[in-house]
Please model this.
Amino acid sequence: MKLYNRTKCPDEILQPLLRIAGQSVGAHTAGVIVILSQGRYRRESGGHAHSASAIKRSFTANRWVRTDGGYVTITIPNMQGTDYRSKDAVDLAFAFLRIAAHEFGHIRDMQRGLGLMPWSKAQPGKRRPRWAVRPEEIRAVNYTDDALDKLRRTRAADDAVLALAEWFEKAAQHFACLLQNFAV
Model:
């Protein structure tokens, strides 16, 4: 897996969690590119899976980088929000794991040739189907649910989620200290 980490969270925390998410849904993570960013105003995670054999972006030094089955973009929550204090860091870390597993479910489909379904796209003069009834989304949700049921019984997944939760807590404490110093 090639990780382009554009967040403040260290790679040592994110890579094991992403690898666990990909392997738990059955995707081959070896050649997949993962682009992580931290939302500027978002306080929730989100992601997209893209089908491509190669990408060329500014963070790849404008070089073509080959992928195996596509690439994933995931946004982690921004800690600089007042409502963060009402959320549990473990819940945020588990939500990140869920989103990563969901997006790797799409990568699994793309690696097996199921990613581009003609009925999932907008037909001429019509809109795309709603998210909840798209076949690829239903499959990805099922992959994710099955994977998370298995992961709840593994020590490695627990350790990876707790490491990310600890980082979320440290980031929130750091931001709270900055706010206190700014207010004085």
